[in-house]
């Protein structure tokens, strides 16, 4: 086992640091200057069927659900097709409507999650086109879906999913580029994102340099009882996923929250003790996040702000927040960058709190029972 971990102490740590490589293999042979080529969607004109769909339904659990949520804004923008989000168990509990005119997109690292597979059976019975996005070649998900894309992130061993999350987002961005490739009006935007994908592994290497800074941050949070993470837009999913990592491995209560909902309840929790991470990197929501930060500071909030490089004084003019500066990339790829400091934070918090990183209490890598 130690040989497989190489110079790392834990699989989670290794898998976090592997991301420049795993993202490269996810994109290998698929991202060209001229566009994106996804072999798994080429046959039988699946792309055309997806384009004609009345709705895309993204279905998954845990981190895989969060990856789909991160991709949703870009998929809607590039395809013009509305996207509905479904946690697999909730879709089953409600027996929510799925139609023949829907494309159901199933996201699962293992391809063996019981709820996701049952939701797949349900969508197949209801006549939807079923697309699988998984890391596991030959898994039940890849065998039972009509078509799909493997994320090719390499074997993930740590129970906490890290490199699969970033590869899932990238695959969904590539799917959006492929589905939207017939639209002339989005050509310039598509080209910009393709350029951004090519540079993504080097930007990920850059953000991984925050490791020591995240360890220091973790040591300042070690005794906290709770940690809130506020995000919105592309980075609402980052808030949910960052909080999921913290609670899953560091065994600390943590909640990801939609910053737009702050005044509708969460604001009551704010005081000088509760640590709050606010994600405020550059995108269309930036000025709204600046005002969220001001409102939190006026309630004496203990803030840690994640911002784009060079933006420290723009997000926190008073200098009273702790700031994490990350490289700025295309808005729809920013969640891939922004989750990495939070993965590092969760990892270091776990080690410092003395918990089992790779095998968290009560959890299994793949949840194969309901
Ligand atoms: C991720 O850190 C979790 N271990 C968990 O939420 C996981 O993502 C979920 O169980 C879904 O697994 P899957 O991707 O294999 O379907």
From TrEMBL:
Annotated GO MF terms: carbohydrate derivative binding; glutamine-fructose-6-phosphate transaminase (isomerizing) activity
Every SIS domain range: 46-185, 217-360
Superkingdom of the source species: Eukaryota
Annotated catalysed reactions: D-fructose 6-phosphate + L-glutamine = D-glucosamine 6-phosphate + L-glutamate
Broad class of enzyme this protein falls into: transferase
Enzyme Commission number, as recorded: 2.6.1.16
Pathway: Nucleotide-sugar biosynthesis; UDP-N-acetyl-alpha-D-glucosamine biosynthesis; alpha-D-glucosamine 6-phosphate from D-fructose 6-phosphate: step 1/1
GO biological process, one term: protein N-linked glycosylation
Keywords: Aminotransferase, Glutamine amidotransferase, Repeat, Transferase
Protein name, UniProt field: glutamine--fructose-6-phosphate transaminase (isomerizing)
Species in which this protein is naturally found: Oryza glaberrima (African rice)
Gene (name only): LOC127757238
Whole-protein coverage range: 310 to 679 of 679
